[in-house]
Records
---
Amino acid sequence: MKCRRCTAKATVQLRSHNAAFCRGCFLFFFQRNVERSIEREHMFTRDERVLVAVSGGKDSLALWDTLIELGYQTEGLYLGLGIGAYSSASQAKTERFATDHGVALHVVPLEDEADGLAIPEVAAATRRQPCAACGTFKRHYFDRAARDGGFDVLATGHNLDDEAARLLGNVLHWQLPYLAKQQPVLLPTHPRFVRKVRPLFRTSEYESATYAFLRGIDYVVEECPNAHGATQLVYKDLLNRLEHTMPGSKLAFVTDFLRRAHPLFNAAPDAGLGECERCGMPSAGELCGYCRLVAEVERRRHATAAHS
Ligand code: AMP
Ligand code: FES
Ligand code: ZN
């Protein structure tokens, strides 16, 4: 097999693109695809400050590495979720990456924040799935860090596999409001929000893992021990089987949705967001989703203390 770009011996085969590349040309291809997504979707420019949410996994570290290589102005954000050894290992890898690349990293351990609540405590107190609480916490702290740091945009490492699985879930349940909001760029709906972007939305998990490996990026291989989003894993498995038989299906599913179907789903405008009474972040009600969850934890703790 020969490299599609330089005809040297190929080391990476991409069936979805019907192509094979040598190491150097694959890295070029990967970075160029990310740059094209950023430019075509008007995600951000080289004059804007980008906060990259990095979990220590392959996708977000491959994204950060690519943005640095492409000359964008980036800083990293790592949220310490307090999930035992998984969180400490991810933090160590993220810090290592930032030091090696000489880039700024903001580490926000949830235990040290004013509310002092890590994910396992919230899940235990509310008897909810950790992932549900985790999503609400991540959104709140991502938004706050981006606003406090005066960034123009927040980038996450969601990849093509994530987007395809999310799309399948939204289609299976005909979640019209979610379908309307499924886009690689979300414009702010309140002055305290920043633009949110997913530059890897056309890049598969396989491609980002290969990129991270070939660039020698040391990332956390283990998934979150909370078997994060079991349903998502079922959808991913299904899509992988489809991809195996029909290479390119995932990419077509997501990109054709965005091009042909998404314009038909009109997003209902967020009814004039106000500000949360407790934390000041944008909110449709008196309290934002994050503060409602914190209040629920406090209520349940008081109830338990009163009964013991
Ligand atoms: P996940 O929700 O775990 O699939 O992660 C999706 C994206 O959210 C990742 O690619 C990161 O950009 C970001 N992310 C997840 N966990 C963290 C974390 N602990 N700190 C900062 N960013 C994170
Ligand atoms: Fe949030 Fe696992 S990363 S519960
Ligand atoms: Zn709030």
Note: The chain has eleven helices and ten strands.
---
Amino acid sequence: MIVYGGDWNPEQWPEETWAEDVRLMGQAGVNHVSLGIFSWSMLEPVEGRYEFGRLDRIMDLLAGGGIRAYLSTPTASPPPWFGQRYPEALPVDADGRRLWHGSRQAFCPSSPAYLDKALAVAEQLGRRYRDHPALAMWHVHNEYGCHNSRCYCDTSAAAFRAWLAERHGSLDAVNDAWGTAFWSQRYSEWEQILPPRITPSYTNPGQQLDFHRFSSDALLALYRAERDLLRSLSPGVPATTNFMAGYHWDMDYWAFAEEVDVVSTDQYLFGDDPHIDLAFAADLTRSFKRDRPWLLMEHSTSAVNWQGYNRAKAPGEMHRNSVQHLARGADAIMFFQWRQSKAGAEKWHSAMLPHAGTDTKIWREVVALGDLLGEAADVAGSSVEADVAILLDWSSIWAQDHPAQPTSELKPVEEIKRWHAALWRLGVTCDLAHPEGDLSRYRLVLVPSLYLVTDAGAANLERFVAGGGVALVGPYSGIVDEHDKVRLGGYPGAWRELLGVTVEEFFPLAAGETVTLAGGGAGAVWSEVARATTASVLDTYASGGPAWTRNEHGQGAAHYLTTLFTGPERVLSAVCAEAGVRFGGTPGVELVRRSHPDGRSFLFAVNHTGTDAVVPAKGSTLDGAEVDGELAVPAGAVRIVREAR
Ligand code: GAL
Ligand code: ZN
């Protein structure tokens, strides 16, 4: 089945509401809820005193209604007694300010007191509900790091030192990795090492990078501790924790994905083309565990309440969003939250059941979506077809995030999203891949912006090309090693040979400045003086010098760009053609295919335009209408076709 539902937070409502909730869930086709995410102060109102009566009744109601629970450990939001009793466990920011309780996620990720209390409540929950018929999966915590991803307190400082000792082996090795001989930063005792707290000038880049890595690991360790406990109490019950893939970059989700049984994520609309940004988030989430379905744990039926200006969704938009996720590999479509709050911090956030009740656009769309997903049950378990991958790595993003760079305008995540968006416009579905990951299934690998690459990552791309793949590398990639140390001898040090290019100097462009390209269009943000050693030059700056090169390497070829092409479609369509990746289609109409190993496949069509469209398809629609070559997709509509191939 396709899972359908949302966060149910019944503790904010009187008990009389609960039965109505479950009845309406049935009406909407809801089959799962995420439960208890913010229930810690209900379950443990006073330290050490547990009260499960209300949750017992809630779980029983769900079981009675045939609805299953992703039962959450409530550890994302410790109750006020925690801050009162353990003030040293509250998080501290880089300026040294203590953050108090009164919202959520007020805890230091490295605090032993927090871990202790979190495991205690998780254990109570695990013991009580491990055999409950409503339990489907453990939803551990909620969005690790959403508000407290980096803590700069003394406890975190000590944990950082222990992490460094483990990673580097010795203080000398830390000094060497960070290049502390410069600016007189050499550490002579471990105790001198601090988190990168506020300093008179730039902090050391190696220190900052390692602190980002440590902070992500500290959160992951919290997840593992809860998961291990739950696993021991309930062997066989899967566990997940919901990511914020595509819009929160403090947690290394490649590493998190290794530890969850099922990948799940939350996604909210951003930017000028939010449906393309959505596609990016979905593609990234799918890529964490390739060929395994993932769960969209949260999105919104309409407006959120945390973006300053919060746009409500147009009629049909929520269906398009949902089907986009489904098309890109989600086997669950869920929302924050089931019933819109009457009080509290999120009362202006949309929900499945709005303030105005059931005679509303939102409710009608929620019910219709339940029907649609009910009919799409055989999609579950299928995987998405993609021949292209974009390399992405957190260490590189974090390293480039240091303020002392050639320009602050070259932003890796934006550049990766810009190439992904161009592919989306070309109608090409792509994965994201770890630089050291298995690339053998792809025809084309793109490297829009990968400042830091390990030796293993550098060799991986070379192997891919040597074996017959086509690669396209953007500027300022392959520049530093895993410690953020420059690879010497000419840029891009890691891939000079692969690309057949050597670069002497960077010439970042001023804000708004562009350079004209001989082949048409312009470059922005960045330029460099490159010399083609073995590469051929495909485009130049109007003033001379390579802008786009191509180098044959083994059985394949590697392209390189020395500036940010303002219309990357020109280059991307060329490399797609060279790699044998099909592109084209109807502008604004998203087409994605999912297929089962036995050959059954589904074509998803989402028309994001205001014009009716017709796309090629063969098979039958979910409601059984035959499609013989042409599928009508009206303006703003979604269609799913069971293909006859
Ligand atoms: C998520 C969070 C939810 C809710 C939602 C609102 O970050 O997990 O609890 O706050 O945002 O958009
Ligand atoms: Zn701390």
Note: The chain has a mean pLDDT of 98.
---
Amino acid sequence: MLLCLFVAKLASMRLKVVACFAIAVALFVAPVTAQPRASQSVDRRVDELLSRMTIEEKVGQLNQLFFLKQFMKPEMLEPDIRSGKVGSLLFVTDPAIINRFQKVAVENSRLKIPLLFGFDVIHGFHTIFPVPLAMASSWDPALVEQAQSVAASEARAVGIRWTFAPMLDIARDPRWGRIVEGAGEDPYLGSRMAAAQVRGFQGEDPSSPGRVLACMKHFAGYGAGSGGRDYDSAFIADAELFNVYLPPFKAAVDAGVGSAMSSYMDLNDVPGTGNAFLLRDVLRKTWGFKGFVVSDANAVGNLVTHGFAEDKSDAAYRALTAGVDLEMSFPGDPIAGAYASSLTKLVQEGRVTKNQIDEAVRRILEAKFRLGLFENPYVDESRVATIHNDPEHRRLARVAAQRSTVLLRNEGSLLPLVKGDPKISSVAVIGPLADSKRDIRGSWVFVDDVNRAVTVFEGVRAKVGSSVKVEYAPGVDLARAYPSIFEIINGRRPAAWSEAQKRAEFEKAVSLARSSDVIILVLGEHEEMSGEAASQSTIDLPGQQLELLKAVSTLGKPVVLVLINGRPLEISWAAANVPAILEAWHPGSEGGNAVADILYGDATPGGKLPVTWPRSTGQIPIFYAHNTTQEPETKKNFTSRYWDIPTSPLYPFGHGLSYTTFSFSNLRVSKPEMKVGESAEVLVDVENTGRRAGDEVAQLYIHQRYGSASRPVRELKGFERITLAPGQKKTVRFTVGKAELTYWSGALRDWVQEPAVFDLWVGADATAPLTTTLRVVPASSVLP
Ligand code: NOJ
């Protein structure tokens, strides 16, 4: 992607290179017979169409191209659309251009096959929702589903019919920039979020109004790249692959996801885009996936770069036969268009069979028929503004941001601040992210109206009204060492300050803090510091933010730290010295309002961490579901595996405070013993023991004490976010049965559910102390 987008810059000089995608001039110009009626079965319609297609037209359906209007002109692509050499486009977001391209396809091409328009609709389109890592922090699948259905409707409004989301890569290394795009470290939480997103995008039927086809990505193992470096090789043992990295993808398939994207990196020495084990054996044969597979951008050609394929033609052969149906590429890049340039010849040479081509083309055509594109290829441009400006979308974005924030620390109940508190007549909102409309939204945002995004400074100002003086100072500047691909696309490169300016701004911020009654520090990362090609060698607070934090926090004023970021950052100093820390992630268009709602108690925080929060970079990788060592877990902080810092994280997985308190009690199992294959109910009472209404997330963890293979010390197997009034008590129920207790045994090389004693815990995070046991006996044994 990185390379191809740099190439994009040069694209205007390369108009002619697009012609490289052409394989041969279309030979058939016979008038097209009327399209089959919609009532005919999709299979028959595909058969009929396939029977009329030339090999070049078939290969055209397997070719998807980028169109970036910043760098390209529509005329560049139209000849290839007209001659049937392109079947799909991505990154076209202007409905007029979508209609223009579609018109060429359905009115001027020989077979009149509509184009399929795809785009990265990751966390919103016009209305931006919190980044996926934040949405996962809500532990609220219903909310996630609603948010993605809004995103789908806004994208669909401009003619986009397919999103390259959800990203389902488990991420256990926060140095990896793309941790922001997923649901964090846990396969169970990841699976629930995966299914919710698929439902949100596709609804019951992706062809119905306001829905789009989803694409699970990046299949598979991309989150395990060495050192957290983007695109780096992943080496994942089978047990870890099946138990940790694949479950969210399986959940998406079970939820009916319509497409999948192959990954860039090597998995156990085989690149994802040439990986027949993943794409054929696991995805199709074992899981029964019926949709189509698209490569990541230029990933087919990348098989040569990987040292896997001999040349572009060999790359096309390997990707197609491994199970990649559609090649995504960037026009003009020398490694792009491997299918377009090679498949016809490969068929002529007999290396690829006509059936292999037909199999891939069939899947693409099936998707186009199922999406109703043949009947309704165009988008109604007159409806875009109404759909995009639906106030309900903004309302939901605000609720989503409220529910995604995680209160990490709140010493002395500093939060919530009290509106109208006579002791507070001035508030300083300080930090490089405090008034940045761009950064409140996060990565993968291209087409929203940035001016409508609400910053924390704006949110606080609106919240407290004119009687309180609210002032802002950035304090420090923030920039990557080298520009991100998105800075190039979005045309943004934050200007670095001069040394003199740095000193002056720092002083200004500290003096503003000194003269204010309360300080809200907004620190973290700008939007391009996480996401694709945005890995970091450390998780330190970038730039001089720690110095600013220390300078401001030692003034003796109440300080609230609000984090705007896409990954856990090293905040150990803050965790010991700053009384209140609120993790807002990149909370989206309504982020500033939502943060202000939380800071001033109009909403109560209830989000929970979807990742273990390291104390420092040196602890990475750190995740709660690790296996125990030869020593009992309870001893780990005494016989530590590090002598310089504790083995425990700064904040555990699942952690998140509220403005009220909760107690968990009376943990019980419906039966103390059950047979393999049976289910038991686990019940716990949760009570709001404080004085405000609030949300708690009851989390069920299990541990299999012994078996054919060692199992993690704890594994999340159920959760429910509940709202309780003060004093209210509720019983939460979970089921523990085959689905929860089965795992892939590295010893037996198979899925097993074993007789064993299981520890169960239910509580507020992965360290929950309340525990009981469940004995599982062999299915054949006779219970007393
Ligand atoms: C490359 C990224 O890896 C992938 O996630 C994205 O969907 C494609 N580019 C298209 O933008």
Note: The chain has a mean pLDDT of 93.
---
Amino acid sequence: MTSAAVVLMAYGSPDTLDDVPAYYADIRGGRPIAPERLAELVERYRRLGIERSNPLNEITERTRAALEREIGLSVYTGMRHWRPRIAEAAERALAGGADAIVGLVLAPHYSAMSIGAYRRALETALADRADLRFVERWGTDPGFIRFLADRLRGPDAHVVFTAHSLPARILDEGDPYEQELLESSRLVAEAAGIEDWSFAYQSASPTGEPWLGPDIVEHLDALVARDVERVLVYPIGFVSDHLEIRWDIDTEARERAAELGVTLERIEMPNDDPAFVAVLAGLVARALQAWQRKPQQAGQLPSAG
Ligand code: FEC
């Protein structure tokens, strides 16, 4: 008899302004932080009003609770850079009696620097104490593509799909991130019957090395040069409203668009939309089915409960 649970992972966000220095230190992993960068980050969070509520952590909790209801299994949240940590989620799942754990990241596209890092954190925490079924990528999951395309019927604007940039060296390392992003964008555009689209990155950090481009803000200039007047930003690499959406797109990119005289709108993020939660539930169910097949081959009949 086996018992399954889900560890649902997200980037994590500081709960209050006072948490920002520790949160940023965690992201930097011990590398130095320029005081002006920290001050800038605190200011961004202050302007988004996180003293009163933090969008990312609240949304992740709502998504977690909805997924738990939808699949009837315990779902534990584990944050990469904040609390509860991925290791805490793993311990809670084990303490709850789980001996099979589905690891699912709230980011659809694989990079060794993103989903790979979540995976390493969860594997280290579990230390072989449970059977891990890790969902490595889901950016081309048919249900997810349908869900994304449904939000995109007939826009009267040029669509720009966006995702978090990463250091450009990942291309030399053979990382599949960019290919996966372009493939998701293509599939969504095709399913929605959109021909007028492009792709840009966002949220690059000034870490002293080149990052993948073009950046959305520069890309707007290029679109204006092509006489585009209306832009619809579709952040395909993200699934919730957080700093990178509410600041980088809703504030910075929108300001640049206004300067250029371009209308910029953004698609609504999936967050805890029931149709999106159903997509997540499908990913969990398939991971469990794959896991169930293994012991059956050895002649046992497990049940995921
Ligand atoms: O709402 C929030 O409070 C958190 C929003 C947030 C999300 C997010 C997602 C991704 N990141 C990824 C990669 C990097 C790399 C660095 C980096 C830096 C930051 C900083 C903040 C931040 N990220 Fe982020 N990221 C979010 C927030 N991210 C804040 C630090 C300030 C700054 O540099 O602007 C560079 C680290 C370094 O300095 O070495 C690399 C990737 C994702 C998408 C996948 C995922 O969600 O995990 C990739 C949300």
Note: Residues 274-297 form the longest helix (24 residues).
